[in-house]
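Protocol check, entry for the methods section draft. Step 1: assemble the input record (protein sequence plus ligand SMILES). Step 2: submit for complex structure prediction. Step 3: store the structure tokens unaltered in the notebook. Ligand used here: flavin-adenine dinucleotide. Step 1 record:
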Amino acid sequence: MFGGTELAALRAIVGDDGILQGASVERAYDCDAYTVDRSSPTAIALPSTTEQVSQLVQWCNSRNVAFTARGAGTGLSGGAMPALGGLVISTKRLNQILVIDIAGWRLLAQAGVVNAHVSRAVAAHGLHFAPDPSSQSVSTIGGNIAENSGGPHTLKYGVTAPHVLGCKLVLPNGEIVSIDRHEDSPDLLSLVIGAEGLLGIVTEAWLRLTPVPERVETVLISFSTIRDATETVAAIIGAGILPAALELMDRRILDAVRQAFGLEFPEATQSMLLVECDGDPVECKREIEQVFELAKAPIEARLAQSEEQRASFWMARKKGIGAMGRLAPTIVTHDGVIPPSKLPEMLEFVYEVAEQHQVGVANLFHAGDGNLHPCFYFDDREPGAVERVVNAGEAIMRRCIELGGSLTGEHGIGIEKLDMMPLMFSEADLEMQGWVRDAFNPTNLCNPCKVIPNQKGCIEHRRRWRGAAT
Ligand SMILES: Cc1cc2nc3c(=O)[nH]c(=O)nc-3n(C[C@H](O)[C@H](O)[C@H](O)COP(=O)(O)OP(=O)(O)OC[C@H]3O[C@@H](n4cnc5c(N)ncnc54)[C@H](O)[C@@H]3O)c2cc1C
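Step 3, stored output:
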């Protein structure tokens, strides 16, 4: 707990109602959506301007207090969890869209603006913000930038990075800088996007807007085996078709969505693909026809006949993880990448690993770009359950790397995959990443113990996570 003098100094920056402290607040902010690793903050600050963020960061530096930025807390790798306590700087009140430039197809938003609110603000002008994480109804622009988030439409439109034109950043020493893309200077924006909040706190960002496609066709295809669905994905990509979205859901997810939201599908269904093509109407129709032809032994294929039906198809995909809450009290959603051609063998491996480690697993993921999300469901109060889930996750990540993939497609490293970084990076690679972090964040007060392994002062925390110390 901060004492009276410290609280008075913080309240002088953000106002009396801008600092939260106490047992219930500490509990509410001790993790993000990766709930197996927790650490309580000392206090929460709710700034509403860049200058306030800067003053808070300067105060933390003067007291040697760690600080961690937090958007909506939907991160799935523990990024917003305050590993060493200290101040959580929430962007909840940085929630204004400051400039809408329709002619320039761009918009300036504060970091706490919710992703979906950006598209909503410009929908009447036929524009949208293309990055669409499935958490988009709550996750923030600052969180999306920090994680370089993807989403179902990443396959065609890319992750967050190409849709950010510049940002205002409070450096870890409290200085305020503006970073833009300039062809003739180093691309610092690319360092900040995806840095998981280690290089400073983004307070504003210029976002690139994209025209809403002229035509969208969405089809939901049911298969009686998961292999038929994964082979269909490989066939679509192999045929050179680039759908806007190509998402796979397995039977366990479908059962959860059926229970929660009444989704209907044939009883023999073991997996479903959601395929969306968009763009020029003639091209779009041609692509969807090819998708129908390439589907391997489908038992049903439904083309959305209205915007309402399209939304109901997407509901199955976007609410899938939420619906998993019906299966067990704890969920850990992993995030690995493999070449799409390896999907059939990889999915079989995922089910085998889950069985070996006696943990439930369901799968819904961005199949087109080979971005897996094995979703483990379990009860973390059961002795040994967390350890089994962590070990199963590690086995899956190892296999992703062996197959030429990567540790994360979009959820980041955070604290969850810290110990797995050496699977993918050499000592020299990690040392170089440390230099970049140190150039921005030499005191390591800004979001410590994340992404780069073996940080000073972080060992104890990692032991606790592993359950090796009490
Ligand atoms: C149901 C569900 C579905 C999801 N689907 C997807 C998906 O499809 N694609 C995807 O990529 N992710 C997905 N996610 C993960 C998550 O929603 C994204 O990572 C999202 O971008 C996090 O945003 P947030 O505002 O919740 O950030 P938080 O969780 O609050 O923070 C995430 C990280 O960003 C840092 N951060 C936050 N704000 C700032 C800032 N202003 N400046 C600097 N650093 C900052 C934090 O310190 C932390 O390290 C999903 C999560 C859930 C729960």
